[in-house]
Amino acid sequence: MKAAIIGSGIGGIATAIRFKAKGYDVDVFERNNFYGGKLSEEWINGYRFDAGPSLFTMPQFVEELFELLGENPQEHFPYYRLETICNYFWEDGTRFSATADLDVFAKNIESTFGEPQTQVKRYLSDCKQLYELTADLFIHSSFHRLDTFLSNRFFSKLIHIPKLRAFHSLNQENERYFKHPKIIQLFNRYATYNGSSPYIAPGTLKVIPSLEYFYGAYLPEKGMIQIPNALVALAKRHGVRFYLNAPVEEILHNGRRVTGIRVHGESKNYDLVVSNADVVTTYDKLIKNVRGPKRIYSQERSSSALVFNWGIKRTFPELDVHNIFFSDDYFSEFNALFKTKTLWHDPTVYIFISCKKVQGDAPEGCENWFTMINAPHIAGQDWDQLIQQARKHILGKLTRILGTPIEPLIEAEWIFDPRQIENRTSSYLGSLYGTSSNSMMAAFNRHPNFTSRLKNLYFVGGSVHPGGGIPLCLSSAKIVSQIIS
Ligand SMILES: Cc1cc2nc3c(=O)[nH]c(=O)nc-3n(C[C@H](O)[C@H](O)[C@H](O)COP(=O)(O)OP(=O)(O)OC[C@H]3O[C@@H](n4cnc5c(N)ncnc54)[C@H](O)[C@@H]3O)c2cc1C
Asked: Staple 460 to which of 11, 20, 104, 161, CB 3.0 to 4.6 Å?
């Protein structure tokens, strides 16, 4: 089998490795002059910034790829387990450090917020149970094949439908367990892990915190960029060929099946083609005479992001690797993001500081702040104006809460906005995670990993089943490899 993969995002690289393990001849074509798609990095004046994901869960999905090709992951892919999951800050001066140790975390919630620790543990244990109930079907299987729905494991799960909490929002679900608004807010924030609103997305999303509290939060020893770097090196050691600066111009087909691709004006024959580019971009830009299913255009896209990467010439011991400065009005913030498609004037600010763990990411005595707020997907906004306002609001908020003027400390700056996210990774409307999960049918409506319109064309990555985020993209590669038997 000769396979072409369009794009070297995490899903494309993982597919290449899985195909190699099957003995295929594999070529990966990447439009950019770097690997990794959204998982990339930038250096500005001696500061290194991971340009996309910052939170790494389920490292076993990466390790599995080394094992598939007979290598020991520990030799090539070392990572830290974080002891603190996140430091939380509120405008009224409340601060809370969420430790990875579940007992300590629950005890600290009780002493700081008065929520009984038994209730915190019950909530997280219910989250884990739900994950275990749903993962096999929703994350690890092709959702669009009859054999999945005719299987015993599908029928055995039907009786558990009420446990999915799909008819309530995540916020309603969290209100069922907790009274303190700050704890509800803390668990509501997990909806943003796939670019959704906790006030609309189903309670099923409560599976997400269980990944951090039961399976851990991690950081690769050389930063997030080490994920694509280590995997590309692995793939190359086993004979996968990568071509950078190689935008695929067309997926060639004879009306029924794909026959190859056109790149740099040259037609190349392949037995199968996998697109790791956004599914909308793939249909609109790469396939002639075949329209994509209507629903991919009407489905709501996930949120995007506005990131201020700042080189800060001071250290802040009160900050850890992950830090959140909450908005006082979370509901209005999400209403702005998903209804009016704009930025809220008091946004929740997330700061990722990799140099807390990764030596050399910032000069001595300084810190690299990846300062991110959620942003709506592109919908005709005046981004230059919004960015200017957001910068002012974020600096004001951080200055108030940290008690130190922040602007004078910035000695390097790189702003990454939804327009650049769209350009840099061909992500339709700049969304981070493909389609949002703001509907109980979202999981069912995501584009499958194959199409009945053209044989031997497959799709992998965040814009298709099972969705965005590193673990799910890795899972989509596994599904693609399984359905090509
Ligand atoms: C700011 C930000 C923060 C995020 N935070 C997190 C996080 O903390 N944790 C997490 O798990 N996830 C996070 N995500 C989401 C995560 O990055 C994505 O879900 C995931 O990396 C997407 O991978 P993918 O396989 O879909 O490929 P993508 O990363 O989308 O890459 C697709 C690749 O295809 C290439 N391509 C497109 N068209 C062509 C063509 N015609 N020819 C050749 N190549 C082409 C592109 O150049 C690109 O390299 C974040 C994303 C962003 C942007």
From this structure: 11
27 and 46 housed in the same domain: no
Which numbered atom of ligand 1 lies nearest the CA of 57?
11
220 and 344 within one domain: yes
CB 41 within 8 A of CB 32: no
pLDDT, one tens digit for every residue, the chain (485 residues): 999 999 999 999 999 999 999 999 999 999 999 999 999 999 999 999 999 999 999 999 999 999 999 999 999 999 999 999 999 999 999 999 999 999 999 999 999 999 999 999 999 999 999 988 887 777 777 766 656 656 666 666 655 656 667 679 999 999 999 999 999 999 999 999 999 999 999 999 999 999 999 999 999 999 999 999 999 999 999 999 999 999 999 999 999 999 999 999 999 999 999 999 999 999 999 999 998 999 899 899 999 999 999 999 999 999 999 999 999 999 999 999 999 999 999 999 999 999 999 999 999 999 999 999 999 999 999 999 999 999 999 999 999 999 999 999 999 999 999 999 999 999 999 999 999 989 878 878 899 999 999 999 999 999 999 999 999 999 999 999 999 97
With 0-12 CB in 10 A as exposed, 13-18 as middle and 19+ as buried, what is 223?
Answer: buried
pTM of the shown model: 0.95
Ligand 1: nearest atom to the Cα of 51:
1
C-alpha of residue 466 to centroid of ligand 1, in Å: 14
CA of 9 to the centre of ligand 1 (A): 5
Q: What is the CB < 6 Å shell around ligand 1? A: 6-12, 29-32, 37-39, 52-55, 247-248, 276-277, 286, 305, 307, 421, 425-427, 432-433, 461-462, 468-470, 473
Tell me how far the alpha carbon of residue 304 lies from the centroid of ligand 1, in angstroms: 12
Instruction: Give per-residue burial for 248-264: e unless 16+ CB within 10 Å, then b.
Output: beebbbeeeebbbbebe
Look up the CATH number of the domain holding residue 370: 3.90.660.20
- Domain hosting 366: range is 40-100+216-224+303-432
Two tokens, residue 144: 């669009």
* 236 in any annotated domain: no
